[in-house]
Amino acid sequence: MAVLPRSEDGLNSSNSVNGGLIALAAEEAVLSLAPGDTLRSLGLRYLQAVRAGPVGSGQVTKLLNNLLFTANLGAAASILTLGQALGVAAGRLADVISHGSGASYALDRISAAGGTLDLMAPIAGPLLSKDARLVADLAEAAGAPAGAVMAAADAALALMNQPARARFRER
To answer: Could you give the CA distance from residue 139 to residue 170 in angstroms, rounded to a whole number?
Structure first.
């Protein structure tokens, strides 16, 4: 397979939120099936480059994305639990919310996994915990307040039986 040139229509693995060898291989595979097309023309937004800023910004952006996803997982799992306690079936609640203003990727993932974090916790938990810890370390080193997202991520990690490693000292 030929090496394809990189442009704004393609993936630049050093600047992509979803970069790395897997994304690079996916891009090469997609473009090899549609010669002459670009990722943008094929509507494959997930693989398109995201310019986050100077070197290193893409990695920080990915960590922040994963921290927010972690927090959203906890909120989504909690709302399904609350709904069940109030007599609303988790599957029905997830379906209704997915068509409303509370829709989220995290809720969709939990719903697809049976309405709980049980299936994804053994694999996703340690990875999300690692990323939360990295963000906590970066925030602490920068003297940056992380706010409610850290507390929400800690709660989600607890639901996945992970240590609350996102915690850091507020300044």
So the answer is: 10
